[in-house]
Amino acid sequence: MLMEQNIVDLLERDIGRDHPTAHQIDQEETDAAPEVARALHWFDLTSLRYRDNNGNLQKYPVCATRLKFLGKYGTGLQLYFTLIRRLTYLFFFITIAGTVAMYSNWRGEYWDAESSFGVSSKQLGFANQYGYSLEFIETNTFTTTQMEDMLDKQKEEQNLLLMSAYAVWGLVVIFIHVHKRCSKKETRENLRNNITAGDYAIEVKGLPPDALGEDIAEHFAQFGEIAEVSIARKYGESLHLFKKQATLRKKREILTVRRKIYEDKGLKVRKFDKAICQLNDRILALNQKIAKKYPDLSYHEELPLERAYVVFQSVRSRNHCMKKYRKDNLMCCPTSLCQSERLRFKGHHLRVKQAVEPSNILWENLEVSRSERCRRGFVIFFCVFLLLVCSFVIIFLIKVNISDDDINKTTCEPISSTIPKTQEEAEAINDSGDLRVKCYCFELGYTTIAQNPSLINGICEDYAKQKATAYFAQFLSAASIIVINGVLRYFLRRLGRYQRYETITRETTSTLKKIFIASFINTAFIPIIIYASLQNYGFVSTLSEIPYIGEYFLNEGYTDLTREWHLKVPPAVNTFMVWNLISPHFLMVILGSISMSCSRRKGRKRANTQVELNRAYEGLPFDVGTNVAYTLNLFFVTLFFGPALPTLYPLAFLCFLIKYWSDKYFALRLAKKPPNYDERINDTVLSLLPFSLLLFTCATVITYGAPDIWPLEYDAVSGQVTTVKDTSFGNRFYTRVGAPYTTLLTVTFIYFFVVRKFLGSILKAICTSKKVFSSEKQGDYLNELATIKMNGLHTYHIINNANYSGIVTAMDEYANEQKSDTDKQKLNFSRETRNASSIKA
Known about the structure:
Blueprint: H1 2-6, H2 27-31, H3 36-45, E1 49-51, E2 57-59, H4 75-106, H5 134-139, H6 144-193, E3 201-205, H7 213-220, E4 226-233, H8 238-264, H9 270-293, E5 305-312, H10 315-328, E6 351-354, H11 370-401, H12 409-412, H13 423-429, H14 435-444, H15 446-450, H16 453-456, H17 461-495, H18 504-530, H19 540-543, H20 549-554, H21 563-566, H22 569-580, H23 585-606, H24 610-617, H25 624-641, H26 648-670, H27 680-704, E7 712-715, E8 720-723, H28 738-766, H29 785-791, H30 805-840
Antiparallel strand pairs: 1-2, 3-5, 3-6, 4-5, 7-8
């Protein structure tokens, strides 16, 4: 373990942000000759490994490793794999419930003309339901008996689909409830088994800038014995600038070592001289910026106080302190008059909350105000909006230029009497582009045409090309969605640090939400908007008056979920899900293995120091936040389009099953240790899951209420079967299909967003929180110090944090140089004054 704490990667781009528990490497390691054995040992030290009885590092078995063993590397990592495993079980049962809907859709046989191609996804979709379109029924005459028979058939299919949808809704409710309860239990067990300094510490805000650590310790000693008081200073931008300076200096240091090795070997060093000169120029410019911005920088200990971290000797004392402040701050009054004299510090109103693990803190971001983060968040929002606009334009161009009008049963129904019955009649028309010929080819089926060269090269040539173009458009649309989602994930991960959150976990959860929302909009809503006619909906109607927008973007589409609409949007999402069976799970493992092999081979050839070889042998990053965002997007998209296309349920089951095992293999074999995430990532997931029920309920009502597929209803006034009069989306929530779901929607909203959200927060404020006050079985801080050091940093002093100790030292050296220069200037000024006085005398 000591070796693990004495080795660090000096080439780390952000000074250890990817290794928050690693310590700085000694200079001997920087100059040491590279050895493969030591590089392999470094790979084991920085990866997920356990020690056997002899103290040797061993790999975790992929299949036999229980998830609770991953909890020692962070509660967030354990809960992530637990979430995927439970989602796999959930969609296994949802697939069973969805078979009822798939059977009902399949026996509708609306698309039976292409049955020779086999059972396709559209034959299992909702658009394959038996019946006539609303326009066809209104333009033709049916007897009362025929209308009643059609309504009975419609009700029979409605009952089957609603029964399946109710089962899916109930399974999702059970999943959310079980995952919430079990994850809280797993979090409490993990906190008891994996102790960190954050279990004993509180974060205190509202202290005066000149408060001393001794006075703070004396104030909080009323709750129990104090083990440590650490003060976070107001650095301004100085810590951020010195952090950049330290990064450049480390790069220059390593380049200098490499230059020396090349020079000793008699090789050319011109490229190193050029790179070192460029780094010197950047360091000089940064030093000038620091000198201009901070001409009188104080020593670290002389900077004003920003907040304090108080570590108690026991968890019971910490819990007692937080309980007192929580009850006293129930009214949320910002003034000191609302806080008792006993809890105030020299008249100042204090804000106390549980502290995070020390290595989770981003010290340079503690002073960033909420308004500054909002400003930076607006910049990120604007950039994401531009990317989504690009995605919209790409899919729209695919629709206009590639996805031509497809031939289907609805297209051929009006001319059914003129369609040729034989191949000779079709050849007699002598025009493969004629609609009658295309409908004849449609009735034959694509498989039959492909097996007959005289058809595919003759009268059905245009139809075959059009059909292939439609399939290619679906494939291209799904590919563009996946590519844009990948760009969004990469872009938002890079911009996650730009918003400058206080902790790594907060940064990760914020990035998680942004990636999930942007990916879901790109996957679900943009295809719907592109294939929708929106010129008659609210404020959108005003946009239709703008040139080109109204002509090309708003009027070209469907006003409702017709059968033709079901041939455009859901199949593209189905293709997207098929893509996800391979990408990114298998590709991540396969490409990751290839990348590591190439990096190691390159390192063995070119590495001149042990640090460079360690870098080449290091594992790949495993981003828990990005993977959680991807998982949520897959979950929400499946439930959103599931009522229209139940085949998404088994595809989602396979996706989660493959993702669980591929991610577990990647984390245990190829990845380096992720940061020690706490349970806040899972809390974010729990806060988003109830919205999936709202989306599923609304999607079910709007889809099953489409009058183009189920056009009949019983008129209680006239006592006859009539066509649907009100086809608006809002009216569907009060029909036979929508009314039960409206009740479920109301119950869902009241339970998750009123009872659990508001009443739960009030009870949590009045009573004690199990999440915070459940760790009292832990021992005292000093007795658990060895365990705390194994799980992370044991102190909140910034000077003990390897990522910042060198930076703080550089700040003090800079302040000392400034003080020396000031003293010299004062001395020279006094000498000049004495000389001028003597000359005058």
